[in-house]
Amino acid sequence: MTRRSFVAFVVAVAAGVSAEGARAADRLATPQASPSQTAPPPQVRIVSPASGAYVVGPTRLRAAVEPSDQATSVVFFVDGLKVCTVAAPPFECEWDAGQLITPHLLRVVVNLAGGGRVVKTARTTAVEFAETVDVDVVKVTVTVTDDRNRYVKGLPRSAFRVSEDGRPQTISHFFAEDAPLELVVAVDMSESMRPAMSHLKKAVSDFLGAVPSRHGVTLLGFNDDVFTIAQRAADPAARVKAVDTLTPWGATALYDVILKGAGLLDSQTGRKALVVFTDGEDAGSHATIADVEARLQTSDLTLYMIGQGQGIMSAPLKKVMERLSGPTGGRAFFTEHSDELHNIFNELLDELSQQYGLGYQSTNSARDDTWRQIKVDVDGQRRVRARQGYRAPASSSQRKER
Question: 110, 165, 321, 367: which could form a disulfide with 332 (CB 3.0–4.6 Å)?
Answer without folding.
Answer: 321
